Amino acid sequence: MYKIFMVEDDEIIARSIREHLQAWNYDVCCVEDFSNVVAEFVRFDPQLVLMDITLPFFNGYHWCSEIRKISKVPVIFLSSAADNMNIVMAVNMGADDFIPKPFDLEVLTVKIQAMLRRSYDFAGTGSMLEHKGAILNLNETTLTYQEQKIELTKNEFRILEILMENKEKVVSRETLMTKLWESDNYVDENTLSVNVNRLRKKLEALGLEEFILTKKGIGYRLG
User: Distance between CA atoms of 10 and 163, rounded to whole angstroms?
Assistant: First the structure.
């Protein structure tokens, strides 16, 4: 089931689109906090975004630009402001399509289906993990925090992925080494410590102090 994230402040339009797409077996989430759209986007981790232009706090161009900093997920703008200037602006901000309001729900559905087919038929769906504002992009093996993006080595990425998947728990050193071994990256006790220390330095350079904590004699957990 594909997940669709809708940023639309007109409740009637949002409800109508959501109910229609749910009937087509899509999982649809409508944004609730228009002052923090990206946080809700990350939590829902959708495969497609429907974006209005005129919104409370910040417009759709702003949020499309912010999403583009962390994800390549398709974004379709839905707006009555369908003049050439707005269409060009939307595309420049990272939009993949622009559908003028009013529109037929069946036409919207066909365009969504086509966009999803083009985007995901030959690639896995996008996915992210988030902790304290740090966003791990599982497709790009990158970490983004406060508009800064860093590349991670395979081992650094895998360590962070495992910790973020288990962020409420302490992950033992044995578990980390086993998981890294499964990914064809052999590590022993010393190699694990070296990788964790290097990863910590990268995180600290981003401003993420004490992001990874040591549980003495057991393993690691997120701070």
Answer: 39
In the block, tokens 């990272």 appear at: 94
Residue 30, pLDDT score: 96
Amino acid 121: pLDDT: 62
> What is the band of 182 on the pLDDT scale with cuts at 50, 70, 90?
low
d(CA 39, CA 57): 15
Q: Is 126 exposed, middle or buried (0-12, 13-18, 19+ CB in 10 A)?
A: buried
Q: With CA atoms as reference, report the closest residue to 146 among 157, 129, 134, 136.
A: 134
Helix (H/G/I), strand (E/B), else coil: 218: coil
Residue spans of alpha helices (H) in 121-188: 154-165, 173-182
Interior angle at CA 8, CA 93 and CA 136, nearest 5? 55
Query: 48-57, pLDDT tens digit by residue?
Result: 999 998 899 9
> What domains appear along the chain, each with residue ranges and CATH number?
3-120 (3.40.50.2300), 128-222 (1.10.10.10)
Picking from 88, 102, 94, the residue whose alpha carbon sits closest to that of residue 62 is 94
Say yes or no to pLDDT of 116 above 90: no
Alpha helices in the chain (DSSP H): 11-23, 37-44, 60-68, 84-92, 105-120, 154-165, 173-182, 189-205
pLDDT band at residue 187 using 50, 70 and 90 as cut-offs? low
